[in-house]
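Sequence only, no structure available. Ideas?
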Amino acid sequence: MTELPYLLLGWFLGLLSPRIIDAIKAKYERRELAAAIRSEAEDLQYRVAITSFLLAQRYGEVSRDYLIWLKPKLIQYKGNEPVELVRKFVEQLLVAEPEQLLAVAEHLRAKEGVGLSLKRFNASLIESSLATLRTFPVEYQRKIHEFRNQLSVLNQEIERALDSHRMTFDSSISEQNHDRLTADLKEKYKIIQGMCMRVSDRIQSVIDHDPSKI
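Reply:
I predicted one. Tokens follow.
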């Protein structure tokens, strides 16, 4: 009879073990997924920031404040894209005299009527993992949700710009309408440049989230 409590305890622990193992396994898998999402977010942030820089050069304004915003995004990127030359270029612009910065900005500006064939951005790992992400902490889900919303709006604007860019090659439209179209496209590029900055900032909150705390 004295062995009965131990037998019952062993039986009870035996029942709990698979659940404990499953819980540990699920937690480990969540952390691995969060680490992979962070890697995807870092790569996406770099590409979005570079697009922002390209648009700022050609259609917007390469101000000192903008370069101060951009530099940390380039420094923290550790991926395989060729970032070193861009980083050095930004650092040179930051130490340039105002008139030098203005001269460089004018040299880089796109010629009148020249557009860009932009590419939409995607976060394929995040999109394919939405069901699993529902088991993650609410705060992490909120960061992912806010980022996805901003990215969706950016892609919608890029799609509009692509439509407008394609229309500039339509020989059937009048010269006056063509001029209006190119002017409208230039404004779209400025809007997209600002949107890229906002998306990049939203991505940062995902990057900063420690996977070990998932």
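The helical segments are 4-58, 64-76, 84-95, 98-108, 124-128, 130-133, 138-167, 175-208.
Hope that gets you unstuck.
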